[in-house]
Amino acid sequence: MTADVKNSVKTEADCLFCKIIAGEIPSYKVYEDDVVYAFKDINPKAKVHVLVVPKNHYKNVAELAEQSPETLVHIVETAKNIANDAFGGSFRLIFNTGKEAGQSVFHVHAHVLTGEVLDE
Ligand code: 5GP
Ligand code: ZN
Asked: How many domains does the chain have?
């Protein structure tokens, strides 16, 4: 199995992050390739707070791990690269999964927090 590629992007109508990936809603891009799009969180919780999303739509990290584990690995590698550039490689990676756990956008996204010493 290979990581997702751009020419087979799966989107979902009325998904905020599908619209951001498509450029229909503006965002501050940090990184992009065929598989992922990374952009600054609108409400940052750290000096550097980037969201890394797969271009294909999966509702959460559990579904992503089941359906495209290579894409999940690619998200982690992207987070590592962002943190290497921003803060010597240290970062916190969060996937809120499910409404009760704080997920508010149901297109899987990694919160990458870095750029400063983080509270525990
Ligand atoms: P969740 O609560 O689902 O784990 O994370 C959703 C994140 O998306 C939140 O941290 C929120 O600040 C961010 N967010 C929501 N709407 C927008 C938007 O329109 N643009 C950007 N850049 N971030 C957004
Ligand atoms: Zn989506």
From this structure: 1
Range of the domain at 14: 2-114
Which residue type sits at 66?
A: E
Residues with Cβ within 5 Å of ion ligand 2?
A: 12, 15, 17-18, 57, 107
Is 119 within the bounds of a domain?
Answer: no
Ligand 2: centre distance to CA 80 (Å): 23
Task: Tell me if 94 is assigned to some domain.
Answer: yes
Give every CB contact of residue 38 below 8 A, 6+ residues apart in sequence: 29, 30, 31, 32, 50, 51, 52, 53, 78, 82, 112
The string of pLDDT tens digits covering residues 40-97 is: 999 999 999 999 999 999 999 999 999 999 999 999 999 999 999 999 999 999 999 9
CA terminus-to-terminus distance, the chain: 37
In a domain, 120, yes or no: no
